[in-house]
Amino acid sequence: MIKEDFIYNAKRKEKLSEYPTTVDDSVINKDDGKRLLDESSEKLSKLQDKLFANNKHGLLVVIQGLDASGKDSTIRNVMANINPQGFSVSSFKSPTSEELDHDYMWRCFKELPNRGNIALFNRSYYEEVIYVRLHENILEKQNLPEFSSKLFKDENFWNTRLADIKNFEEYLINNSIHVLKIYLHLSKEEQKTRFFKRINLPEKNWKFSLGDIVDRKYWDFYMEIYEKAFKATSTKDAPWFIVPADQKWYARAIVSQLIVDKLESLDLKYPELTEKMRTQLSQAKEILENEK
After folding, report:
1. pLDDT, tens digit, for every residue of 152-186?
2. From edge to edge, which strands make up the β-sheet containing 87-91?
3. How many domains does the chain contain in total?
4. Which domain CATH number covers 236?
């Protein structure tokens, strides 16, 4: 895998439609994908242990994608071997009344990772410049003093939010909370197939929402506003990775490897023992060896 192949680059490919949603079997097959996932999962577990022990860095993983893009199953499979003591998952759905009484980033601030931890956002503050752009009533509920239909349609308003998000991520990185942003890139045809599964298979019925079908008619607009968000917030230190998601096994392998690559870039090491700690270890060893 060449990591750079997945980085969003408006100069190279401006439209999301130019990025692949599938991988050809001649490049990698399902068995190879599962093997790569197993290998990277083992590495991820060891790297997380170092991250936790090192306690100087935190990692925020943001996963975005349209409905049925496989966010939940990707998280479940990629993070299966992670120690839950140093890992958390947050999912941001409709805001509560308490959350609406705060700024739009407040509920995400609360879930940021501690040093030594990994926090994974299943959807994120990016919903405020993606989903909210399609639903004026949601913006209205945020009780902005200047709210109006004119504001909702004002490109400058949304550009300001995008600039705030970019600055927020720079702030996190400057404080050693690193940001990895992944978009699961699903085709419209594959989304339709997965929706039919949710409708036809009893064990998947609970996942179905009529709202998902309604939102599908905004597909082109979703692509447009995602492109705007990527252009405004994809930076050298926090680029967007566009991961083909039509084949779940492939998306999982790539997401796992991207997390491994990010952690490896931090050059994590276990803490060095002080002379006092070495002495205490020697004393503890002696006590245990002399135990009757």
Report:
1. 999 999 999 999 999 999 999 999 999 999 999 99
2. 87-91, 118-122, 58-65, 177-185, 240-244
3. 1
4. 3.40.50.300
